[in-house]
Fold these 3 entries.
Entry 1:
Amino acid sequence: MKELNFDTLIGNGWIQFKDFLAQSDIAFYKTFAGHEECRCNEGKKKQVEVYIYDHRKYSAVAGVGYEVKCTGELPDGTWLELKSHGLNQDHVDPKAQELLSIWDWSVKNNLTKSKN
């Protein structure tokens, strides 16, 4: 089985961390300045995670899947989890930016606040 190479992710500022839920084979995170804050992480940059699943261990014809996830607490206390899965490594950075744009819009537009 060909060894996975994460040089591009690391070169783009992604940092490996231990997936304590042990659902992925390997995980990375990256913080982004200039985006709306998570309510419970006041003063910290917004963080996005990447979870990598190596399905090749189950089948010779299977591949490697990347999941990009952006989670946070909106101003009204509602938690929002945005994720996209089944990606390849080339789509990680563009998808992270897309999810951050959706996050920013959700915070600015008070997405979950009831309208009377």
Entry 2:
Amino acid sequence: MAKVATVAKAETVDKAMPVAEAPPAPSEIEQLIQASRDALTDSMVERLTVTGANAMEIVDRLNEEATRDAIHTALDRLTELHRIGALDTLFDLVGIVHASKSASTDVIVERLFMFVEQMMNTFGSDNLARLAEGATGAMEDAVKETADAKPTGGLFSTLSLLTKPESQKSLMFLLSLGDKLQKRCCD
């Protein structure tokens, strides 16, 4: 009987005192969120805030019609360059320009500017200007003179043309010019 009373007493105590239930185990996501909160420092929060603000600014700019059109145009052109194989060529060219920039020294740049200066002085000289003006005038005169002339045609007309002293003089000039050019280029 004592045993029954103990059991009855224990049942009464269990009913009278509610047992504190164990809190449910946090899920993995809650654990991850809590770990993130614990790991973030003030400077990290500040950087995340600034990054988020910058991202929103970019997204805001994408809402502008001109920006959106520019990006679409750039993407279309990029796609076209890729389709025709020019994208590789473009990047090769950028690589060459970068290599040239990296390889250029002060001496090379100085020589390049000296060459450009010499070419400008040569093309800017009075002698070259007179030569160009004379050659241009001679060509214009020749065009005007031959524009009205009607070729008569045939082998005998060509032989007749060769008997004229101005034709012979012109041919001698052209032959001499060719000879002198060849000698100057080869020597």
Entry 3:
Amino acid sequence: MVKTTTQAAQAFNGANGAKGNINVGAMVAFINANGGLGNVALQLTPNALANGVMFGGGALWRAMQPNKQGHIGQRGRILWACVNGLPMHTVNGVTVPNYAGVVTKTPAKLGQPVLLSTIQAAHLPSGSSVFANVNSVATNQNAVAAILNGGFNLSAQTANTYGTAFGKLVIAS
């Protein structure tokens, strides 16, 4: 008698060069095969924090910086949530994400993986999603795919980092 088992992959790696960007559809299949957003986490790779600068100092890093008025845009807050997580607070007895409380400081070292359910919660106010851009090369609405690809798309602004995987997806422990 032959016994067969099916087990999903334990990690989903990021891009391998500018022409080896990830397929968002495959990323979504990995998430679903492993039980969904609450069971999969984004683990930043060591090159995500090099010389005290996040994401190679490229377009992803620039999106995380305050504008002239001192405000960090929605894309930047989502990226910061990918790095530092999303704090929670209680409103009228209900625990909800504290979008304004996202830590926007570069960590001294990379921390624990951040659950994709947490990152999805950070996406919600902008209408973007961890599942966005399944049929697109550009990942303008999906910060996780952008981190795995080294940028939201390949352009003159991202040429130095696009194709550099700054993270991978892992099974949450």
